[in-house]
């Protein structure tokens, strides 16, 4: 039976791993998107901490869906060496924690610069990171985010076509497209669907530009889920709530629970199974 897998950026619950797992377990979620834990970014964790996380997750029946690294959220004008070191750390964490996926970004261009002026350098870096991923049996997933070379659907497509590798795929984020005045299903998804192996469940409104629970905004998340179901997608749906402005007085766990339940409602409406 076709089933998508719900996962979550659990650091939006708490910095404490056990509390993260408690909330997700309560919601029937058994995958976790590892980004920050115990006050550290995932790339700052040492071997002992990674081993401890692996043991805790195993004992509690969880698996890591991806290493949610900040690689590529970095000025393209700065040295590339630290980014190569960062991807090696992310690969090590992925191997220890048993996931093939590493989330990355596409570099900050110089302020007020024409994107074409940094095109060659961005593509060179993305190609080199992809080659490292190929050599180490991991898959980099490219998130469209704000103020990056690959903020638009066209630029994401350019990067993916240039690298032309199964080791660089798309982490499709409808909410981030909305934030940049791009219609996710009319404009972005038709271009990017053949490269999309991972989904970030984030919704937003065009006006005002605020993140909202899935289905409450202009991200066309319901249409995205129907398209994924028709395609036979059984991969990850990663809840990244960002609901601080939508629910300013709620607790962090409450915001995450609201976001997860909103996704479940859309899945039920689409008769799309999940685990």
Automatic annotation (TrEMBL):
The Xylose isomerase-like TIM barrel domain sits at 22-265
Under InterPro entries, the record lists: IolE/XylAMocC-like, Xyl_isomerase-like_sf, Xyl_isomerase-like_TIM-brl
This protein's source sits in the domain of life called Bacteria
What is the protein named? TIM barrel protein
Q: Which organism is it from?
A: Paenibacillus anseongense
């Amino acid at each position: 039976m076709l089933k998508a897998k719900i996962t979550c950026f659990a650091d939006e619950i708490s910095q404490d791993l056990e509390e993260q797992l408690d909330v997700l377990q309560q919601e029937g979620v058994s995958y976790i998107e590892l980004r920050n834990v115990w006050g550290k970014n995932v790339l700052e964790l040492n071997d002992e901490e990674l081993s401890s996380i692996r043991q805790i997750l195993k004992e509690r029946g969880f698996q890591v869906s991806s290493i949610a690294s900040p690689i590529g959220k970095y000025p393209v004008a700065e040295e590339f060496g630290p980014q190569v070191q960062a991807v090696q750390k992310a690969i090590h964490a992925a191997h220890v924690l048993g996931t093939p996926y590493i989330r990355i970004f596409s570099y900050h261009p110089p302020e007020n610069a024409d994107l074409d002026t940094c095109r060659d350098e961005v593509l060179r870096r993305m190609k080199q990171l992809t080659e490292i991923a190929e050599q180490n049996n991991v898959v980099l997933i490219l998130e469209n985010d704000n103020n990056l070379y690959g903020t638009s659907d066209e630029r994401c497509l350019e990067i993916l076509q240039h690298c032309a590798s199964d080791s660089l795929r798309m982490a499709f984020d409808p909410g981030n497209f909305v934030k940049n005045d791009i219609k996710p299903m009319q404009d972005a998804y038709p271009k990017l669907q053949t490269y999309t192996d991972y989904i970030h469940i984030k919704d937003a409104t065009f006006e005002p530009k605020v993140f909202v629970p899935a289905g409450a905004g202009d991200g066309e998340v319901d249409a995205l889920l129907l398209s994924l179901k028709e395609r036979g997608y059984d991969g990850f749906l990663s809840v990244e709530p960002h609901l601080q402005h939508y629910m300013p007085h709620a607790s962090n766990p409450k915001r995450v629970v609201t976001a997860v339940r909103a996704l479940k409602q859309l899945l039920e409406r689409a008769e799309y199974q999940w685990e």
